[in-house]
Write a structure and sequence with these properties.
Layout (H helix, E strand, L loop, with lengths): L1 E9 L2 E13 L5 E10 L3 H7 L3 E4 L7 E3 L2 E2 L15 E2 L12 H12 L2 H8 L9 H14 L4 H8 L5 H5 L8 H8 L6 H16 L5 E11 L24 E9 L5 E8 L8 H12 L5 E4 L6 H9 L5 E5 L2 H12 L4 E4 L2 E8 L2 E8 H25 L6 H14 L1 H4 L2 E5 L6 E5 L1 H10 L2 E6 L6 H9 L2 H11 L12 H15 L2 H4 L1
Parallel strand pairs: 1-6, 4-7, 8-11, 11-12
Antiparallel strand pairs: 1-2, 2-3, 4-5, 8-9, 9-10, 12-18, 13-14, 14-15, 15-18, 16-17
């Protein structure tokens, strides 16, 4: 262990920054330096204090042994010191608590998916003997158990885990440069990994891929926009409510059981409706043409893509939510159709039109939930408007407070007509009962469209409800696996970071 100094010039002055570093012997007879403590700029007295020797008396030895903190650049100042501490080694107990059970289980799941064999064939050892397949295991298990930065993995987590013992390796696996170099080797194997996962899901769980769930989310970066035109970090519609940050869009395909099949990283300004066509072609290219049902939220498919899905051979089936504007156009036709009870608390109306089947579904529980939310917002907004009408404000202050109320309760604001006087700080408001009546009729109702014209409506409703599996996958990625924040700045390593989070999500424990 020794003191290491780095000299930097800043504003024309020379600064010396000190760190405590120790040598650690790893496999192959190599020695790596481990950063123990950063001291910063210290004065001469503090420097000498840190260079004090520790005299260790070994039991049975004739003479004491001196273990010194050797300075790297010079050795003056190493004088005898009355504050030397004498330690009796036989009275010491060395205990190293490590996380064992979770690491063992994560490795078992990795082996169950045969990912150890998959990556051993594709990530060959380096010329120095570095096992990058084991480095990837470390990165994935770290993302699954205690997600954080690669620097935290290198400095703290690896030594507090049992991965080194379980893998039969040493701390060289967690070298910071090795971790970053591993990121650069992953993306070329992405398509092969998707094929491998499909086979494993089929073997382990007898999974079928007749129904696929598709959705998108965004990951933001708290950094300045990149200079390169080709960089995927762009401003766009933020599902995290951070329009001030650049982001990337992630498109994900999972099965109704939540088993991930494929994903893609898209530019942050990508429109939802432009993503589906390429994904359809990719799935067909990878897994062949088959009778599949794609479940999607409204806003993802365009009319052009839906027409192509209907015209494909064999036809590609879909079930997709529709905007409420289409419900307005079909409302009169739906009024003449009878209700069908598909299960207790859920009833549907069916309307066949232009080779498609429209399903108007009403859930009693959803009606109660949406009605309660609307009443709560409307009650708060009405009380707020009443209070504002009694306050002494300037016109500008009044407009700001009205805007804040509109932002807080946008759904309720649409049910109230507010008129502000042009020259004075005075306004009037009233409830629009026609809009309220229309909203009450649509609460808890969803209009779905599909080209599965022969399907049971209860089955269609169940398919659409399974979209929550995709949302659960996104919650896992952003919550348990902490895919944010992203510390990388290089675009390839950003995508590799997302790739490692996807690998961690493939663990059955993560899916649960």
């Amino acid at each position: 262990m020794f003191l290491r100094c780095k000299v930097r010039r800043k504003d024309g002055k020379q600064h010396r920054y000190w760190s405590v570093v120790e040598n650690t012997r790893v496999g192959g007879g190599r020695v790596v330096q481990r950063h123990v403590l950063y001291l910063g700029e210290i004065n001469d007295t503090q420097e000498l204090a840190w260079r004090r020797s520790i005299e260790v008396i070994e039991e049975g030895a004739a003479r004491p042994q001196m273990l010194s903190l050797f300075p790297e650049d010079r050795c003056e100042g190493l004088l005898a010191d009355a504050s030397i501490v004498r330690v009796k080694l036989s009275a010491l107990q060395l205990r190293r608590p490590r996380q064992w059970g979770a690491c063992w289980l994560a490795l078992r799941l990795w082996q169950q998916l045969k990912l150890d064999m998959f990556w051993r064939e594709r990530l060959a050892p380096s010329r120095k003997g570095t096992r990058f397949d084991q480095v990837l295991v470390v990165l994935v298990v770290y993302r699954l158990l205690s997600p954080g930065s690669e620097w935290r993995l290198h400095r703290h987590w690896f030594e507090r885990s049992a991965l080194g013992d379980l893998l039969g390796a040493d701390t060289a696996l967690a070298d910071i440069h090795t971790l970053y170099n591993c990121h650069d080797l992953l993306l070329e194997h992405k398509e092969a990994l998707f094929d491998h996962l499909v086979n494993r899901w089929r073997d382990l769980f007898n999974a079928s891929f007749d129904v696929l769930l598709y959705d998108l989310t965004s990951i933001y970066f708290e950094s300045a926009p990149p200079d390169g035109e080709e960089d995927k970090r762009r401003h766009g519609y933020s599902r995290d409510h951070r329009p001030d940050c650049v982001q990337v869009v992630i498109a994900l395909v999972v099965t109704p059981a939540g088993l991930p099949l494929a994903y893609e990283v898209l530019a942050g300004n990508t429109r939802d409706c432009t993503t589906l066509k390429e994904f359809l072609a990719r799935i067909e290219r990878q897994y062949g043409k088959a009778r599949r049902v794609w479940c999607m939220d409204r806003g993802i498919p365009t009319e052009e893509v839906l027409a192509q899905m209907r015209a494909a051979d064999p036809p590609v089936h879909y079930l997709v939510g529709t905007p409420k504007g289409r419900l307005t156009r079909l409302e009169q036709a739906l009024l003449d159709e009878p209700w069908h009870v598909v299960r207790p608390g859920v009833q549907v109306k069916l309307l066949a039109q232009d080779d498609e089947l429209y399903v108007l579904a009403e859930s009693r529980d959803r009606v109660a939930k949406e009605r309660s939310m609307r009443r709560r917002q409307l009650k708060w907004l009405w009380a707020r408007l009443n209070k504002l009408s009694t306050m002494s404000l300037t016109r500008d202050e009044l407009l700001m407070k009205l805007g804040a109320a509109q932002t807080k309760t946008p759904a309720a604001w649409r049910l109230i007509e507010v008129e502000v006087a042009k020259d004075v700080a005075r306004f009037t408001y009233r409830l629009d009962r026609d809009k309220l009546r229309q909203v009450r009729l649509r609460e808890g109702r969803y209009l779905l469209r599909t080209n599965l014209t022969e399907s049971d409506p209860a089955k269609l409703w169940q398919f659409y409800l399974q979209l929550v599996e995709v949302e659960a996958a996104f919650r896992t990625l952003k919550g348990d696996l902490a895919i944010r924040p992203v510390f990388h700045q290089d675009e390839q390593r950003i995508e590799a970071h997302i790739f490692i989070a996807f690998l961690a999500y493939t663990s059955p424990s993560a899916n649960n």
